[in-house]
Write a structure and sequence with these properties.
The chain has 999 residues and is an all-alpha fold. It contains 42 helices and no strands.
Length: 999
């Protein structure tokens, strides 16, 4: 019998007798299957047909293997002793020794039948095995399934031999057998789990029959979402959708079930079917806000459906329907902001500013919609023409010329042209008929201030705190990270890296110095602020003035970050101080008289002066004068215990000064300022020439008791049941809360006069326990502020320790725990993100582990900034073994971070990360910038794949197409076709530029 079945010519039920000679029998041991040419071995045919006595034992052995039973235990024991180590499991079942074959040979009486076609072929050229010899069956071969046999654990550590007698497990354990056992166990366990799932579902169904409520249906739906029974996710989503449709038949007008239904149909049906389902639902109820938003979102986020005019028609129809239904102004403002954001991202900046002009002119002030030219631009810019001529004459390739001209025109042509006939670019002309469908008057004029804040956000103003909920596609501009410049306790050595990152991803129009026309855009923003500050009254005007001062402070930090000696720089040059001071003083001089006496305004003015000149005499004079004027002009008793919020602004200003003093290492002066704030407010002064002795301990205890009493009063006031859960926009997000200022003053003073933070942290834990209702917006606001105070305490302790050159006293594990708690409730909190991301004591792996559970767009962006900063420190010689020619490990970490975040969130189409165009743009740039890519790695091919994945996620974002033209130049023609198909704003076309270049 041959090893291959094709050569087996003997029937299975017959027994053949070997007739080979001794020489031919042992020929395979000397590798006789190959004989070189020139040599021949003559084998006589008759000799091969005759059997020799030496071959008889082999014949009998083969016969005995088929006829004799298994050997006894004694024979097995003797066999084991003879073959101790070279013994296999299969050899135990058959006797292969010569003694066994001789003894069993006499029992064989079967006749020998020669093979029918056992002809020999000459071995002059090759040899073919045609004799079915049983001896070949002793060769090791694979069994079904064809897996080799392994001896497991034959050698231990340190070379100690192990024969499998120490445990009860089998020494020879086949892989496929163990896998089958595991599969059987898992299938049994899965059956048990499915039985439990079905039992729980049946129980929930019984509860529904007894008491059918919306909460019962939602509980059943959530249970099915958390416990799928099919391996195919599509089948699980169909089960969920069927259940939700059953629930909606009983409760057709419930808003929560409607949201679940809109989420489920996206996972089951294609986009066109989803749009048809939503349209049919809107036909039954045209005043449903949720349905309109779902229709616009699915239309906008689908690559095949997203065409700019079609999406704008949906915005127009929804705005008209909701306005006729007299929906709330809050809903109308949200829809208005989404529409304007879509126009900005699609490149239709002229249309966006036309919408803003009509909305602000109708609802805020007529000066916005007047003829003063606030939102209009001339037809031609001389600077733009000069730069275009330089680009056309540069001799660059056409794709690079188109990209540069497109970016240049986008930077200049962002306002609508309101002149006469314009033949060069008709899209720059925005008529009233083009925007009238998106602008409606407010029913309640109290929402005019919120409309103004929305307009500032559309112009990319960086708010320190987010005052409303954001959509996934709204946070697409890098200027949202600029509020980090407003943190007093930040590490100033990171300012340069932060600003370089923001500048790299900035898109025109912007006030960042990344484009040429930033001066005109910044002037536009300042004019908008000036008109709004003059229009609004009281606290709202003071808040807008405070926001303007924060913008000036950010610009000063930007100036210092871009200077040649920006590292550790605190003071600005005298030539750049005068324009800033002149603008601020002019605005303060012409504003309302109430703003000239507002301590909130002067606190920001003092911070601006601190950024320009440090803690100098001018900065101290601003704070001292404002406090003295406030104390002298205050008519009511500021120490009145019945009104704890009367001197709230004074507490805010003093706490601001205390932070500046602690940053500069003036701990004693900070303690004295807080003591006077608690006991003698009229003695408050921040003049450096005034020297005073150390505050006695008795005075400290008295001041601490006063601050504690104030905290108790404010906490009792906030804990009142009749207090409304909602708060005004000014108090909730911009005005300083009385309880927050009292708690901050108390715990800061407690941490300064004590040697550790244990007492202060216990107090904060108590306050967090008191306000722990997640459904109460006021509680959420208070908790966020308390968490920031908590984190600031650890930063303060670290700062004091560094200044005193002492050992650390704060616990890093406790600090990370409070960071985790903060990000769990407020994942986009910039204060907490900055404190943990830019912490030098955390290695990269631990940092990724902390933020991996709370990834948001801002968290990912800050992680990339931190990685770049660490890479620059490494390249500058922080590590002596760094080789500049090799790829930095942080580069690969950035790629891994962005790749895992974006590809891992593709399953959730509404994810904040997947629909964020800024992250896709950053990933494209990082992929393209790989100078040390490994051999065989195609950077352009990887960029091409990522580009189309990004366009699939955000097909309406024009900045993605421009970055794709830069990182994937081979796809320029396809990108231009896509932009034309989507009808995005295109300022220049290659044919026009070719004519201009030739002319």
């Amino acid at each position: 019998m041959s090893l291959f079945p094709a050569y087996n010519t003997v029937p299975q039920d017959t027994k053949s007798v070997s007739t080979t000679s001794t020489s031919s029998e042992l020929a395979w041991l000397t590798n006789q299957s190959f004989i070189p040419f020139g040599e021949s071995i003559e084998i006589d045919e008759t000799e091969s047909e005759q059997s020799t006595p030496e071959a008889e034992p082999h014949k009998d052995t083969d016969t005995a293997d088929r006829t004799e039973p298994q050997p006894s235990k004694r024979q097995k024991t003797k066999h084991k002793k003879k073959h101790k180590k070279k013994q296999s499991k299969r050899k135990r079942g058959s006797s292969t020794s010569s003694e066994g074959t001789v003894e069993d040979s006499s029992n064989s009486a079967l006749p020998s039948l020669p093979a029918a076609s056992s002809t020999r072929i000459s071995e002059a050229e090759y040899y073919t095995d045609v004799d079915p010899l049983k001896i070949y069956l002793t060769v090791e071969k694979l069994h079904r399934p064809a897996c080799p046999r392994y001896r497991l654990g034959t050698v231990k550590t340190l070379g100690i031999r192990w024969y499998g007698t120490e445990s009860g497990k089998d020494r020879t354990k086949r892989y496929f057998r163990s896998v089958k056992v595991k599969e059987r166990d898992q299938s049994g366990a899965s059956k048990m789990v499915q039985e439990e799932i079905f039992a729980r579902e049946a129980e929930l169904e019984r509860y529904l029959r007894v008491e059918e409520t919306v909460d019962r249906w939602i509980e059943l739906v959530r249970f099915r979402q958390d416990h799928p029974i099919h391996f195919d996710s599509y089948q699980n989503h169909k089960r969920e959708l069927t259940l939700i449709e059953r629930a909606r038949r009983n409760f057709p007008f419930d808003e929560r079930l409607l949201r679940l239904y809109l989420e489920a149909i996206v996972r089951v049906h294609p986009t066109d079917e989803v749009l048809n389902l939503i349209r049919r639902a809107i036909g039954k109820d045209e005043t449903n806000v949720t349905l309109w938003r779902a229709l616009i979102r699915n239309k906008q986020c689908a690559m095949a459906q997203c065409i700019v005019p079609d999406v704008l028609k949906l915005y127009e129809r929804s705005t008209r329907s909701l306005f006729m239904a007299r929906r709330s102004d809050d809903t109308m403002l949200q829809l208005f902001r989404n529409c304007a954001t879509f126009c900005r991202q699609a490149g239709l900046c002229e249309l966006m500013f036309g919408i803003l002009q009509h909305a602000l002119g109708m609802n805020v002030s007529g000066r916005y919609g007047g003829t003063d030219g606030l939102f209009s631009s001339p037809e031609h810019f001389q600077q733009l023409i000069e730069y275009e001529e330089l680009i056309l004459k540069s001799g660059l390739p056409m794709n690079e010329i188109w990209l540069r001209v497109e970016l240049l025109r986008s930077a200049f042509h962002y306002l609508p042209f309101e002149g006469g006939r314009l033949a060069s670019d008709p899209q720059r002309m925005v008529l009233t008929d083009d925007v009238v469908g998106y602008v409606y008057p407010l029913i309640n004029k109290a929402y005019a201030f919120e409309l103004m804040l929305g307009a500032l956000k559309l112009m990319k103003y960086p708010f320190l705190r987010q005052y409303d909920e954001e959509e996934a596609y709204e946070v697409d501009y890098s200027e949202q990270l600029l509020p980090l410049f407003l943190h007093v306790f930040r590490d100033r050595s990171l300012d340069g890296t932060l600003y370089a990152f923001v500048k790299q991803l900035s898109v025109a129009p912007s006030y960042i110095r990344a484009n040429i026309a930033n001066e005109s855009y910044l002037e536009l923003v300042r004019k908008c602020f000036a008109v709004a500050i003059d229009h609004f009254q009281g606290t709202q005007s003071a808040i807008l003035l405070t926001l303007y001062l924060q913008l000036e402070r950010i610009l000063v930090c930007e100036e210092k970050a871009t200077s040649s000696c920006s590292v550790g720089k605190i003071i600005l040059e005298e030539g750049k101080l005068k324009p800033v001071r002149a603008r601020v003083k002019n605005l303060l001089k012409h504003t309302h008289s109430s703003n000239q006496n507002s301590l909130l305004v002067y606190a920001e003015y003092g911070l601006l002066e601190y950024e320009m000149t440090g803690l100098s005499g001018a900065c101290r004079k601003i704070f001292t004068t404002s406090v003295q004027v406030y104390c002298s002009t205050e008519e009511s008793d500021i120490s009145d215990t019945t009104q704890p919020e009367a001197d709230n602004d004074l507490f805010h200003l003093v706490l601001t000064v205390v932070e500046l003093l602690l940053v500069n290492g003036l701990k004693d002066e900070a303690v004295r300022a807080l003591t006077n704030l608690a006991l003698k407010k009229e003695d408050l002064t921040f003049d450096s020439s005034v020297t005073s002795s150390t505050v006695p301990d008795t005075i400290k205890l008295s001041a601490l008791q006063k601050l504690n009493d104030r905290v108790n009063r404010t906490v009792r006031y906030e804990s009142q049941l009749e207090l409304p859960s909602h708060t005004t926009l000014t108090e909730l997000h911009f005005g300083q809360n009385a309880m927050i200022n009292s708690v901050k003053a108390y715990v800061t003073y407690l941490a300064l006069i004590r040697s550790n933070l244990s007492e202060a942290t216990k107090q904060l834990e108590t306050f967090l326990f008191l306000f722990n209702d997640p459904t109460n917006p006021r509680h959420r606001f208070l908790r966020q502020q308390l968490y920031e105070i908590y984190i600031q305490l650890y930063e303060l302790a670290q700062l004091v320790r560094q200044q005193a050159h002492s050992l650390p006293t704060e616990n890093l594990r406790t600090f990370l725990d409070i960071i985790d708690r903060t990000l769990n409730e407020f994942p986009s909190n910039l204060y907490a993100l900055r404190a943990v991301v830019f912490n030098d004591n955390l290695p990269w792996l631990r940092l990724r582990g902390i933020l991996g559970k709370h990834l948001t767009p801002k968290a990912v962006l800050l992680l990339v900034i931190a990685a770049r900063y660490r890479e620059s420190c490494t390249a500058n010689g922080a590590l002596s073994d760094f080789i500049p020619t090799e790829a930095s490990p942080y580069k690969q970490r950035i790629l891994n971070l962005l790749g895992s975040v974006l590809k891992g969130s593709q399953t959730d189409s509404d994810s904040l990360l997947y629909r964020n165009a800024l992250l896709w743009r950053l990933y494209l740039r990082e992929l393209f910038d790989q100078p040390n890519a490994p051999p065989g790695y195609s950077v352009l091919e990887q960029c091409r794949r990522t580009l189309y994945a990004a366009l699939e996620a955000c097909p309406w974002n024009k900045a993605l197409y421009l970055d794709g033209a830069s990182c994937g130049p081979q796809e320029l023609s396809a990108l231009l076709d896509l932009m034309m198909e989507k009808q995005l704003r295109v300022h220049a076309i290659p044919e026009e530029l070719a004519i201009l270049r030739e002319g």
